[in-house]
Design goal:
The protein contains two helices and two strands. It is mainly alpha-helical. Strand 1 and strand 2 form a beta hairpin.
């Protein structure tokens, strides 16, 4: 679960970065074409309204992606802390055989084998 949470966070972070990069690219092009006026989208003219709306949408998508990534990372941390806490509180009973983890390759498939009781 922790690995899935971290993976989800990395994917969401990458998407958020792409949205921010695209927004910056479009904003730079709009500024170049309009005399580098930083207030171009504060009160856009009719010909710039669509471009400013698209730029704002990309910035909004960046914010959402960043928030989703943060949620994934926090969730992964909670799961990892709960797992570690479980080992600390309950310990590993000596009567039980230890959990064995081994890589397995069969034909064209590969995976991980878990044996034992937690």
């Amino acid at each position: 679960m922790t690995a899935l949470g971290l993976t989800g966070g990395l994917v969401a972070s990458a998407l958020a970065a792409q949205y921010a990069e695209e927004a910056e690219r479009r904003a730079a092009r709009l500024l170049r074409n309009n005399g580098n006026s930083r207030s171009i989208c504060a009160s856009p003219s009719p010909e710039n309204a669509l471009a400013c709306a698209e730029i704002n949408d990309l910035y909004d998508a960046h914010e959402v992606g960043r928030d989703v990534a943060t949620g994934f990372f926090i969730g992964a941390g909670v799961v990892a802390a709960a797992t570690i806490g479980s080992f600390i509180i309950h310990g590993i009973e000596r009567r039980r055989p230890p959990v064995r983890v081994a890589p397995v390759i069969v034909g064209d498939r590969a995976g991980v084998s878990f044996r034992g009781v937690w």
